[in-house]
What does this fold into?
Amino acid sequence: MINDQDTPRKMERVSRNQVETNERFYKIPKALFENEFYADMKLETKMAYAILHDRFLLSIKNNWIDKNGDVYLIYKNSDLQTILSVGEKKVISLKKELADFGLLEEERQGLNKPNRLHVGNINVDFEVIHRVSPLGDKELSKRQVRTCQNDRSRTSKTTAQEQSKRQSSETNLSETETNSFDEDEVTDNNNSQKSQQSFIAIGKIIQTNPELRSVVQSLIPDLLLNEPQQAEIVVRALDRGYHFLTTELEKGNSVLTLQKQLQGVAAIKQFLLSVGYKQVDYMHDHLIDISQYGKYFTSGFENRLKIAITTSQLASGF
It folds into this structure.
């Protein structure tokens, strides 16, 4: 007698219908959520990017490749409207935002022919601002960053005072303890010297570029007092940004030209302040380690400037 276990089980082959109706997914790059460069991008725009990027396989199948070897898409606005369940104006707005972030180029082909769409690569080089605590910790706010700055300064002074009192009251300090105190004192002196050097460097930069004085005083007053070494890094980034904007204005950048027409000679400074405030506000809400302030300000600020000069968003409160 043959048991059912001994009978070979007939394989069920996958049908075409199953392949076509099988659950599929759109892939959204994590960088769109983790990189500060894309922090202000709307969620719908990120979804639109994923949908457009998903069409690459069809493009390759249809051999939609231009003479430069770049893959392009043929995807009408009406198709995006259907899949996103939005109107035409919304689709146009989403495509414009993708273009502003350097993720979409539209190439016209002529009358009655659909435009070619070129999807850009995600900026994966930009660093993520890491968190020590999860996002749920709402105490990590603007006030705490400032408190962190002040506490570090107070702690340094208090520690030095306590050590001084302890040294005078305890006459039987061991040689090891004495050496440890001396090392701390040397460290404090080194930090003091570095802070002094940073103040001098900041002064020289502002002396060379007086337009930065009010910008620095407005953006980082607390940092300037409590963390001069970090402030120096920020001031150098602002100085580079100022020269970058000046050069772009001389080249005839349309966004900067418009700002100059509206604000006159103060246009560059106001532009610098607007972008700087945006970066500072973002860092107050996200940055934990104050020793990384200058580094993250520089990278984020430079990327924001590049976006700002390619879009009219600044004029309406960038």
